[in-house]
Structure formats: C-alpha cells, structure tokens
Automatic annotation (TrEMBL):
Occurrences of domain AMP-dependent synthetase/ligase (ranges): 66-446
Family: Belongs to the ATP-dependent AMP-binding enzyme family.
Domain of life, per lineage: Bacteria
Pfam families: ACAS_N, AMP-binding, AMP-binding_C
Xref: NCBIfam families: PRK00174.1
Gene it is expressed from: prpE
EC numbers on record: 6.2.1.17
Residue ranges occupied by any Acetyl-coenzyme A synthetase N-terminal domain in the UniProt entry: 4-58
UniProt name for this protein: Propionyl-CoA synthetase
Ranges for domain AMP-binding enzyme C-terminal: 509-588
InterPro entries the UniProt entry points to: ACAS_N, AMP-bd_C, AMP-bd_C_sf, AMP-binding_CS, AMP-dep_synth/lig_dom, ANL_N_sf
EC category name: ligase
Molecular function GO terms recorded: propionate-CoA ligase activity
TM annotation in the entry: none
Length: 638
C-alpha cells in the first residue's frame, strides 16, 4: 500500500485519531479534549471544547517564535506601481491597532463585519483584526454590484462595513464608496458605521457615520487576541446557489485552522519561511484560505497581487512575481493561463525570468482542461496540479499530494481524494457506481475539519441543499467518476451553477432578473462553453403576447439589468429572443439540451418533449446569431 493510501485510509477509518494528531500543529489556548462530536442534525463538529484565536496562531505566535522580521505579506500592485513588504512584527502591530479601532466602534466577539475591498494589504488587516476580536467577517468581492452587496448586508447584519475608497482594474478606477452607500440604502438593515480606507487614485467623500481608516487607527490602543471556541464562526462567505439568494457559507475557527495547516504540508508542500503566491482575490474562498490564512498559519510569506494575469502590463506578470519573490508554490485558476496563452502562445515572456524557485503549480476554480494542462506541462519543469474544491469545503477535496507522496498526473483529473474526504460517486438510486461510470459526487459524513458548518441563519437550507439528497452524504453538486486506478475526474455541475472565469454564478438568479422585465413572458439562462472563461451565460427569452418593442433594445435592457443587479463579473452579454422554448410535457425547460446545442453537440429529440419543433426553432435561432458552436450541432434521429 502506498504512503498516500495508508494515510487516506487512516483518515477515513479513524478520523478522530487522525485529526487529533493534525491539531497538534496549532498553538491552542486550550487543546481540545473532544475531537469529533455531532450536532442535533448529525453534522460533524470538530474540536468542540478547544480554544484558540486564528489571528494569534497566524501572526502573534510567529513573532513570539522569532519570525518577527520575516515578511508576512508582500504586496505587489502593478496597477498603482507600488510594492510593500510587511513583516510579521509590523503586521501584528497594524492588525492589533486596527482591531483597537474596531473595538472603539463597538465591535466585539460574535459581531459581523462586512468587508468590501480590493487586493490591498488593508483587506487582510481588516480580516485578521476581526478574527483578533472574535468578530465574524464577511468579505464581498469588489466585482459585485450594490444589489448583491445589499443582499449580503441584509443577511449578515454587520455592525460595521469596511471599504476601500476604490478598486483599480486594468484601465479604470472604480469608486467603491458609492456602491457601499447605495447598498446600505437598499438594505433594510443599517450598520452602525463604515470605515473607509482612502486610496490616492480616488478619495471617497465621507458622510455621517463614516470613519477614515487612518484617523481611526491613529491613537487606537492595541487590541489583544480574544480566545474563541473552535466551533465559533470565523467568517461567513456568500456563494451562488441555485436561487437568487446567495448562501452564507459558515466557517468555524478551529477545524478550519487545523485543515489549512495540514494542507500546507500535505498538499502545498511548504515549510515555514517559504513563499506562496495565490493569484486570486480575497473575495473568494481561494483568497480566504490560501492568500489570507493558510500561508501565515504555516509561517510562510503570502503575496497579495493587485493585478491581472495579462495587461498589467503584459502576459509575463506571473512569471515576474515568481522570479522576484522566489515563489515556491503558485496557485491560480485555469482561466488565467488561458488568458496568458492567448496573448503569449509560445510563452516567449517566460524567457525573461528565472522561475527556478518554483516547485509546484496548482490550479482550481474550474476543471483544468486538457489543452491548458498540456500547454503548462510542456512549458514548465514542475508538476502541474489540478485540485478540486468548493467554497463550502474551504480546502481541497481532491488533489495530488506532494507533501505525502506525488502521484503521476493524468490530464483532466484532480488525482485522488485528500485525506479526510470520503469521496464516493452515487447513481440516481444512491448506489455506488462502477469505475468509469459517471454519477453524483458526494462525500460521506463526517466531513473533515474546515468544511462549512451551516448556512448563516438558514439551517433548513443547509439540510435541503446538501444533506437531503443522499442521507449520510454531503452533495457536492458536481458530477464525475473514478477511473480504474482511483483517479477522480470532476466533469461539471449537476445544478444551475455555472463557472465564468473561475467565478461561481447562478443562472437561476439571472433568470429571476431577466424574468422580472415587464416584456418577458418566459426565459432560460444557460452556461455555454467559452474558450477563455470556461463558460459564459446566455439568455433565451420569450416575449409577452402583444410585445411590439424593438428586440435589440430589449436585449440591451436585459443585459444591463443583470450587470446592474449582479455586477460586471456576471459577463452576461448575449440574449436571444425566441418564439418557443423546448420543454418536457410536464413543463420543464430542457436546459441541458439547449446547452449541448449551443456547444455544438449533436442532439436527439427526447421522447418526453412537448413540441419537437420548438427545439429545431431554437437551434435555427442560435445558428443565425452564431451562438457558441451551435452551427456544428446536428439533429439526430432517435
Ligand atoms: N472589481 C470590480 N470589477 C471587477 C473586478 C473587481 N474586483 N474584477 C473583475 N471586474 C470586472 C472587470 O473589469 C470586467 O468588467 P467589464 O465588463 O466592464 O470589462 C468584468 O468584471 C469581467 O471581469 P473578468 O471576468 O475577470 O474578465 P476580464 O476580461 O477582466 O479578465 C481574466 C479575464 C481571465 C484575466 C480574469 O477573469 C482572471 O484573472 N481570472 C482569474 C480568476 C480567479 O482569480 N478566480 C478566483 C478563483 S481561483
Ligand atoms: P467555488 O465555490 O466558487 O470555489 O466553485 C466551486 C465549483 O467550481 C465546484 O463545485 C466545481 O464545479 C468547480 N471546480 C472548482 N475546482 C475545480 C476543479 N479543479 N476541477 C473541476 N471543477 C472545479
């Protein structure tokens, strides 16, 4: 049996012993005597009576251990032409002082704080400061529009909102404060205060109840780390579900810290003092886990990059950072490499840099498509590791594990389940499938430490979304299969969630917005294949009887509605007015079939269809407007 297999088996057969051992990595205030217990819904609770503070474990502890002079954060911002190194000691002081400022505003243990900031060190400082006080942060990605921010404020009920005055995209400065102001006015819940970090590119106008970050910290006392229970929430991170209401994924403190610390060794093969570069955003789970918390828990240096894979200033940006900061593990989304490949197909810019420090390259957020895998694999001398995870799990469910034992890579596979995750593939009847047979990917209870502990204020939704489909298993929402050698292949979502440039979006939410237009009788939003972004949403719309407006104007209005509601990252840019939508006799729109047609796959007309000619109509409309690869789709006789 391989070392990986031994470790994996121990983890699933004897989880308490396994995780008690891993928990020893952390500086607990009180080491837990109970390792695994269950709540009244039979969901796992880890390290119930343990006490710790994750800010202490990630920062203060390392200062005490003599790492004070090591950089904790390296900020590199090509969009502002700025670089900054912050040592562990300096970070401790800045976090403690900002936490002191927050405490003055009345923030205490258990209070929520919403953070709406771009990739600046202050975003991390704000998160650590909340953790220091035992407050629960909820970071909202800067690409979300006021409405999305308002929904999150309404649900999380934060005492304070922390924002930057602006974000900076490649060629534009985006004022954030008006978005925050509009969101607060849309929300029926009103926070007590808003703290604004002013940036030179655009200073925000402050109103009553607003506090300037610098003024707030100027004479604030240093705040101590507040001990919290392992099961106390560290953060709520909203993610797209199948409806318009995002799910507030709740993360505990102790289980998360243990899982992240374990992953830094087992998956990312990093030692204290090493440099990790995760090119994502603090608004996503990848940012929470592998920009903010995990690298520092391990005593590493984390890079905060305010730039893009291309155009800041060119497709060599990532190679530059790896060279300049001697990065050992690099992690980003496949879409970023597709963007680089598009601009620099032969990676000529790589020749300008020495990336010999790099030992492993990791990708996640969407499946690493085989062409991009081969491009990277041919280009680089290091293992290219596709690993699969979700906002809900907080850390990888399946990966190659060089910190335990590297396995040969297979294109298109996320390799093996990570210790702790008892991954199984079930068919519709809940039976385990044979190798190579696709099914629903589930995780047998108990979920390991680090995974969601619930949906904020909605235990019923937690149960119905994840636990009800197959009792005793967590439903990932992904489809996939194991091959004969136990490699896991994740093939895509089985629900209405799509993945656009590594960003998770709900087509159900877009349908709600499109369907609310007075001229729309019915609609479907589907995710179709896109070379660069993986998927793109497209809307198919039937207008109400009597609609005599201009279709092009309606299409433009629908596009701008989605942009205004969700934000630019929805990338909703194509709408088609059609006469009919193909449905089953029970009235269900045949979305999967529509997707296949748009992706150029040949399609048979299912026997359950209500009106077979509707499918031909939609196909013709898609071809006329050159939607995706619909021109290649052929109707088959079945
Ligand atoms: N704040 C405000 N607006 C933002 C934003 C932010 N933080 N991030 C993106 N946007 C805007 C963009 O400016 C763009 O607006 P536009 O329609 O006015 O041009 C829109 O949202 C779409 O952005 P995006 O999908 O990112 O497209 P892009 O063409 O700007 O960049 C990539 C394409 C592939 C380079 C980029 O998506 C990328 O770097 N992806 C990596 C994904 C990632 O890190 N995922 C996290 C999980 S690991
Ligand atoms: P998010 O919660 O935004 O991280 O998105 C999670 C979803 O992204 C998963 O459920 C998958 O559908 C998809 N995903 C993430 N990483 C991978 C991967 N390595 N391979 C395949 N799909 C992935």
């Amino acid at each position: 049996m391989s070392l990986y297999q031994q470790t994996y088996q121990q983890s699933v057969e004897n989880p308490e012993t396994f995780w008690a051992e891993q928990a020893r990595r952390l500086p607990w205030f009180k080491f837990p005597s109970t390792i695994l217990s269950y709540d009244d819904q039979q969901h796992a609770r880890w390290f119930d009576d343990g006490e710790l503070n994750i800010c202490y474990a990630a920062i203060d502890y390392h200062v005490e251990q003599g790492r004070g002079d090591q950089p904790a954060i390296l900020w590199d911002s090509p969009v502002t032409q700025t670089k900054q190194a912050i040592t562990y000691q300096a970070l401790r002081d800045r976090v403690a002082q900002f936490a002191g400022g927050l405490a003055r505003l009345g923030v205490t243990k258990g209070d929520r704080v919403v953070i709406y900031m771009p990739m600046v060190p202050e975003a991390l400082i704000a998160m650590y400061a909340c953790a220091r006080l035992g407050a629960v942060h909820s970071v909202v990605f800067g690409g979300f529009a006021p409405h999305e921010l308002a929904v999150r404020i309404e649900d999380a009920e934060p005492k304070v909102v922390i924002a930057a005055s602006c974000g900076i995209e490649v060629d534009k400065v985006l004022p954030y404060k008006p978005i925050v102001d509009q969101a607060i006015s849309l929300s029926s819940f009103k926070p007590d205060a808003c703290v604004v970090f002013q940036r030179e590119a655009h200073r925000a106008e402050l109103h009553e109840g607003d506090h300037d970050w610098q003024t707030l910290v100027a004479d604030a006392p240093f705040a101590d780390c507040v001990p919290v229970k392992a099961t106390d929430p560290l953060y709520v991170l909203y993610t797209s579900g199948t409806t318009g209401k995002p799910k507030g994924v709740m993360r505990d403190t102790g289980g998360y810290a243990v899982a992240l610390a374990y992953s830094m060794e087992a998956i990312y093969a990093l030692n204290p003092g090493d440099v990790m570069f995760t090119a994502s955003d603090v608004g996503w789970v990848v940012g929470h886990s592998y920009i903010v918390y995990a690298p520092l828990l391990r005593g590493c240096t984390t890079i905060v990059y305010e730039g893009k894979p291309v155009k800041t200033p060119d497709a060599g940006g990532f190679w530059r950072l790896i060279d300049e900061y001697k990065v050992k593990s690099f992690f980003t989304a496949p879409t970023a490499f597709r963007a680089i490949k598009k601009e620099d197909p032969d990676a000529k810019l790589l020749a300008n840099y020495d990336i010999s420090s790099l030992e492993h390259l990791y990708v996640a957020g969407e499946r690493l498509d085989p062409p991009t895998f081969h491009w990277l694999d041919d280009l680089l001398d290091v293992p290219v590791i596709d690993h699969w995870w979700q906002t809900e799990t907080g850390w990888p469910i399946a990966a190659n594990l060089p910190g335990i034992e590297s396995a040969p890579t297979k294109a298109g596979s996320a390799t093996f389940p990570v210790p702790g995750f008892n991954v199984q593939i079930l068919d519709r009847d809940g039976e385990q499938t044979d190798p190579m047979q696709q099914g629903s990917v589930v995780i047998k209870q108990p979920l390991p430490p680090g995974c969601l502990t619930g949906i904020w204020r909605d235990p019923q939704r937690f149960h119905s979304a994840y636990m009800a489909a197959y009792p005793g298993y967590y439903l990932t929402g992904d489809g996939g299969y194991f091959d004969e050698e136990g490699y896991l292949f994740i093939m895509g979502r089985t629900d209405d969630v799509i993945n656009v440039a590594g960003h998770r979006l709900s087509t159900g939410e877009m349908e709600e917005i499109v369907g609310a237009h007075p001229a729309v009788a019915e609609c479907a939003v589907i995710g179709i294949h896109d070379e660069l972004k993986g998927q793109l949403p497209i809307g198919l719309v039937i207008t109400k009887d009597g609609f005599d407006g201009d279709e092009a104007t309606l299409e433009a209005e629908l596009i701008s509605r989605v942009r205004e509601h969700i934000g630019p990252i929805a990338c909703f840019k194509q709408v088609l007015v059609v006469n009919r939508l193909p449905k089953t006799r029970s009235g269900k729109i045949l979305r999967k079939l529509l997707r296949n047609i748009a992706d150029g796959k040949s399609f048979g007309i299912p026997s359950t269809i209500d009106d077979p000619t509707s499918l031909e109509d939609v196909h013709a409309a898609m071809c006329e407007r050159s939607v995706g690869a619909s021109g290649q789709a052929k109707s088959l006789d079945v």
